[in-house]
Amino acid sequence: MVIVGAGFGGLQAAKALGKARNVRVTVVDRYNHHLFQPLLYQVATSVLNTADISAPIRSILHARNTEVLLAEAKSVDVHRKVLVVEGGEIPYDSLVVATGASHSYFKHPEWAQVAPGLKTLDDAVRIRERILTAFEAAEREPDPVRQRQWMTFVIIGAGPTGVELAGALSYMTRHGLRRDFRHIDTREARVILLEGLPRVLNAYPEELSEEAKLDLEELHVDVRTGAMVTEIDDEGVTVGDEHIATKTVLWGAGVAASPLVRSLGVPLDRAGRVRVTPLLTAPGLPDVYVIGDVAAVEQQGKPVPGIAPAAMQMGRHVAKTVLCRLAGKPPRAFRYHDKGSFAVIGRGFAVGVLYDKWRMKGLPAWLVWAGVHIAYLIGYRNRLFVMLNWGYTFITRGGRNMRLITSNVAKRMPVLAASRQVPGLPPPPVRPELPTASRPAPVH
Amino acid sequence: MVIVGAGFGGLQAAKALGKARNVRVTVVDRYNHHLFQPLLYQVATSVLNTADISAPIRSILHARNTEVLLAEAKSVDVHRKVLVVEGGEIPYDSLVVATGASHSYFKHPEWAQVAPGLKTLDDAVRIRERILTAFEAAEREPDPVRQRQWMTFVIIGAGPTGVELAGALSYMTRHGLRRDFRHIDTREARVILLEGLPRVLNAYPEELSEEAKLDLEELHVDVRTGAMVTEIDDEGVTVGDEHIATKTVLWGAGVAASPLVRSLGVPLDRAGRVRVTPLLTAPGLPDVYVIGDVAAVEQQGKPVPGIAPAAMQMGRHVAKTVLCRLAGKPPRAFRYHDKGSFAVIGRGFAVGVLYDKWRMKGLPAWLVWAGVHIAYLIGYRNRLFVMLNWGYTFITRGGRNMRLITSNVAKRMPVLAASRQVPGLPPPPVRPELPTASRPAPVH
């Protein structure tokens, strides 16, 4: 049994099979850690550490029958039954493809450079750095037009990631960062959330989309629905006739399944996902399971959403199917149990639907969201540290958070204002060594 | 007042002057955070998070008279009295140079590429990644000679950084990592500590050097003193006649003061430091203070060591001098109070000297070390989180730590062993979709 991808789906399959005596499992991933993607935006907005939302795959999968391999999967050769990885091949008897999805740039791959998406820990650290660097640059920038450009943030795509990122970023500009600067007022930063569809959180009931929009606006996010982006470059974003001048564009739109499934030679849907059988296998390939964001599953005419609980259910189901087959029992068709989904808007409020029935908003929704996320984190350590960091952030309103710029961005800062290059106002130096003002008086 | 560098010295000067009404302070640093360097090796060895040992400078220096500027200092023009930074100039009435030191590669600058030093958060994250990647590569490596090369780690320089890094790394190979791999036994990893001088921790009393060496050897560190490195490249290190095959060389030797002081035009010592006056000013430049690792201070014929407490004392002393001068009082000469220094060897043991009198070792020394380090961390948040992480690491013996490789190293892995490319031993597949072994049976 070879499992490619140790996300929510792959990890559940591996864990469930780790107990089986008659199966050997090899888990292949190009990273050494499992990542709790739903909280990645909190690394990007300086609330959590990278290690709080991740765990080394090897430390999770300690079962004797399980082996972990750090390798980049390149293709599947279904005829020879091998998984081709960078630098070698791994034969399989049965294969689980759980390689997930990335964002889709809608035929504009060149936008990926200027408008990074949020999928890996490195992405999150780089986005965090980009946001913080924008404020540092604004603080130095003498030209008010360019200063405003540095202080404008555009987020494209108002799915859960975009909504959560916009809310957290806007909160940060109004609270955590507020006292840090002298030449800018971070509360004047603009966070613009662009969505091509008519409403935010399109997968949610309309009433909750409306609520989310109002909540975001209360957090001073400029929400624009039905906004089609036509151009993005280093200087801004074009939406219809309007050009929004910005130095920071973040991407949270579209879904493009991992390209690995293309090599399976089976029909794919528009997002590049495999339309799987009820046993979650690829059509015509009974030994190749496809789960999580890379699988298109329909149930009662509705698509199963691309969220962590769905992937986990699929992972566990594959493990059951494999064990049934080994035991000679007939396997059962996959059935998705919709436990719900939630999106956080801001400090202590969220929207969501529980068990496909109860619509929730505000603090109750946030409490459910928080409880579920804590519960699904891997390990007690991460649970404890996430709770502590949330508690700290909540109490201090984003006080001294993980606002780190670790790479040397100082070389790329705007030229210093000429006005700052003249020593400030009196008192003039009495003796040369007297310490007096060397720059304009602080604004605040 | 312009302060360049927000390390231990610069920060103390800025904090002390933050209370003064008649001074305006500008703090210039090329990073946005203050870094608690003494614990940096714990980020490199997966014990602590980057944010646990750092804090944004802006969030520390909130005083109304203080301004923080992210900028790379390039030189000082003492005639025009300006600090030249990338993209501008900052005039000063008085200047504090507190830009610290980096490692010296002893006329071999090309070694910096293959043998990185540990000075910034980015260095620590990259070294962590390098160490973990070496084990991933060893796990994949079919050739036993190259496998052994991947599992050999050489640390050059047995000052506190080298000793602490060697101890922590060796501990990690024997505990935290032990159960993670199938094709290698991480306990067979070799950690070699090379020192050119006749003993480790040369600044400590001889008795403690001896103790440290014994403790390191108990942790299976191969300690070699009087070892002169003549060559380092991608494949190993040459020491005299011996070539040590290794893929991971870490550098902790030598001290080279920040090159900024060269532009002051004053005489420097061999390490590039300014021999300062008793008021900690550069000779002939009464308005330029030089403190911390960039200053060479002698007291009763002994050099003041390049450690955090010394830099902090100098920072506070400069603030006092400035305030004395402003008040028209005569400033007093700097006097270093030796409170002691400690180096950790392993889990619960250290060596050190307290108040230049009491020599300590073992657990008592570790407890003093831990208490002092917690106390000197910036802010309650970092103190709490460092304590929690230490507690966790202590109890679990390095259990599931921050062992993250965040960049995509999978592309650079060794070619997979041919033996792994053949499906493993029985049971052979009964039906094609049956999950059976696809790789050799686990070794453990």
Q: What does the model show?
A:
The structure is a homodimer. The first copy, chain A, has about 450 residues and is an alpha/beta fold. Chain A is about 30% helix and about 25% strand. The first copy, chain A, contains eleven helices and 27 strands. Chain A has helices at about 10-15, 40-45, 55-60, 110-115, 120-140, 145-150, 160-175, 205-220, 310-325, 360-375, 380-395, and strands at about 1-5, 25-30, 35, 55, 65-70, 75, 80-85, 90, 95, 100, 150-155, 190-195, 220-225, 230-235, 235-240, 240-245, 250, 255, 275, 280, 285-290, 295, 300, 300-305, 340-345, 350-355, 360. In chain A, the strands form nine sheets. Chain A has a six-stranded mixed β-sheet with strand order 5-2-1-9-21-20, with helices on one face. In chain A, a hairpin with a 2-residue loop joins β14 (about 230-235) and β15. In chain A, α1 (about 10-15) runs parallel beside α9 (about 310-325) and α5 (about 120-140) packs antiparallel against α6. The longest helix of chain A has 20 residues, at about 120-140. The radius of gyration of chain A is 24 Å and the shape is globular. In chain A, about 55% of the residues are buried. Chains A and B meet through β4, β5, β8, α5 and α9 of A and β4, β5, β8, α5 and α9 of B.
